[in-house]
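User: Okay, second chain of the day. Same drill as before: sequence in, structure tokens out.
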Amino acid sequence: MTEVQERVSDERRAALRAGLLSWYARHKRDLPWRRSEDPYSVWISESMLQQTRVETVIPYFMRFMKRFPTVAALADAEVDDVLALWSGLGYYSRARRLHAAAALIVERHGGEFPRRRQEAEALPGVGAYTAGAVLSIAYGLEEPLMDGNVQRVLARWFRVEGLVTRAAARRELEELAANLVDGVGDPASWNQALMELGATVCSPREPRCGGCPVEALCEGRAAGVERALPVLPARPAPVDVELELFLVEEAGRVLLRRRGAEGRMAGLWELPTRELASGEARLFPAEVELSLLARGELGELRHTITRHKITARVYRAALGEDGLPPEWAWVGVEELKGLGLTGMTKKALTLGRGRSL
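Assistant: Same drill. Structure tokens below.
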């Protein structure tokens, strides 16, 4: 008998399952991706939900599924069209990997998300969590999953006090998740119930233990250490970034620059932008010889990307030179909605044009 098996008696496991599943049946949120067990729908939603709030994801999910209702439709799309629908959601590598994975699903798996974990995790952007979510929710397989919400719930239930990024604690949590889903009967509801409890009750800073259906079974709560769990690594210090953005319009067109194929926000379109460092203007790359003539400040924007806290001043400007490097282009206003724009660029265009895209 393993250490985890010793910690999770049959009686305790049965009580946890009964309490949580009963609670979930009464309190689960009506979310659009829960209205279907289609593997494609589950996969798209779980990919979008990584590091992103549910409220933010809902409209993106609805638009995405309307435009790309099947994995074949996603595989056939241009990556620029995918990025355009993803614009503003952040973590754009997820969109590129979704597109690449869709092509592989069509090519190698007959257009169906694979049912075997090894094959699922071989797809671009599909890790252990996403594979476990799709296999359990869509296919009803007894596969564990581990996102931040599940990690927090299990660390508190079983008082796992080790740093969760270290192998011992991570392995203990994974074994607990596997033990609890094994033989559960309804793994789709079980895994979603764990995530739902973490998202709505067992929250990071102020858990609402009085609303937890299994409070009496929680070791962290009994010891009074629930707020200290899970033990997370120290967050890196935030980085303040100051930018200047220039909105250049001419004859119903906007001047935009396409970012390179590598790095953060690769391939997305942005307004002419420069970063200010230590009070000195860090100019555009040497090959970009643009004469941007500021015509007045439009306002200030704030934006956050991971730990980067960005403050940007937006200026209306005119272009003093005719020649443009290859990565710069005049884009018609009516074409903006079809482009993959950076989140900051969308905000700046909304500020400058007085209406959202």
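The longest helix spans residues 10-27.

User: Thanks, on to the next one.
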